[in-house]
Fold this protein.
Amino acid sequence: MRLGDLAGAVGGAIVYGNTETDITSLCVDSRQATPGALFFCVPGLRRNGHDFAPQVVTAGAAALVVDHRLDLDIAQVLVSDVREALSYMAARYYGNPADELHLIGVTGTKGKTTASFLVKSILEAAGFKTGLIGTVGSMIGSRQLPTKLTTPDPLDFQKILRQMVDEGVEYVVMEVSAHAMALKRLEGVHFDTAAFINFSQDHLDMFGDMDTYFAAKMRLFTGGFVSKAFYSVDDERVAAAMKKIPSATGYGIRGAADIYANDIEISENGCEFLLSFHKRFRLPIRLHLSGLFNVYNSLTAAALCDQVGVSAEAIRQGLENVRSVPGRIELLDTDTPYRVILDYAHSPDSLENILITVRQTARARVIALFGCGGDRDHEKRPIMGEIGGRLADFTILTSDNPRSEDPYDILMQIEAGIKTTKGDYTVIENRREAIRYALRMARPGDVVVLAGKGHETYQEIKGVKYPFNEKTIVREILETF
């Protein structure tokens, strides 16, 4: 594609150099620059892409996208915001694939993955070829397309959308993270419909405070990205903000809403409830996912799919077709007299939800194992410790992804919270040994909750990602007993 054509995607862009320059690739990593590449000098949180421009010139890059002119002999596109320009130019480079798809978005602190899987299942029950983009990766039908981020960076995102269009996908459901909105990864993309499902503490390492974090999520609905919005009326902060959005409709269980669930019964094997919709129809649902929060996830999915014209029967069938979601209250096949549940819970609300859900159906003790990620929100660590001590019969504090931090420093901060309770606990830094301890101490009727890793298959320590698949580890440990 010619440089001038790409620059035309960004209002106010000025090209210094030959607009006929041929662009053969786009990149944001100077190490990946090749002859003919257009390099985006993105200002990062720790490093500024402008500082690496000389390296990409040496590598043969054809042009740069900059927010100030550089004294380099190379074509440059001057823009006011390189991140924003990246989104628009990546979309044009891949032929604006989002314009050929129906996009459905889900945002919130927790539950995005499960709600997205439920939406995908409903759309497939209705006969649509469906793509999914989210925390567990991207999917076309049942085929996995690995991605690194909940909402991929614009280059990966647009490339994935183009692949989906080329393979005949009609609908794409995707998790929309606060990071994606703050870092402008979705500029120029429009959603047919989207939902704000809940809000609680997380990611303060990135946003600094809850107000900034909330504003990043709200930008999806205040920035012209969505035609029709939905939200949970039972989340006070979300409801107060979303009521001001003209296109928004609420759903819930406790508060008044046109879309709601009642007659709810929860067991260890799932939930049964009556789904009522705009006084148009009532659906008896037998969900195979347990927990009240999964009733909310079902309401989210039902509201979004009804909005795009899916039938009531497809909604019912799609919800009931989902047997599990990777790493989300996932019951492992252990052939033991106790249950072992894998869950991605890594925030206070998520941990509290999973432990409350398990306690409601546990026949004996609840044994919780968790840690907290390094280089992330420090404030939540003692809060999660307190939750474990209060809701579990026994808690094992261990490492999650310590990243660059000393894992024992993290554990001491979690331990400060659990010490405020009367809960029994132990600290075992090595996560494999912690899992071994939990499985060895479990008795018939107990429930062991392995929280924090979920679908992840690695553990990040000092910048290195080591293989760590808890499903495999549990199986290996049990074989030694």
Q: What stands out?
A: The first helix runs from residue 3 to 7. The CA atoms of residues 20 and 172 lie 35 Å apart. The radius of gyration is 24 Å. The chain is about 35% helix and 25% strand.
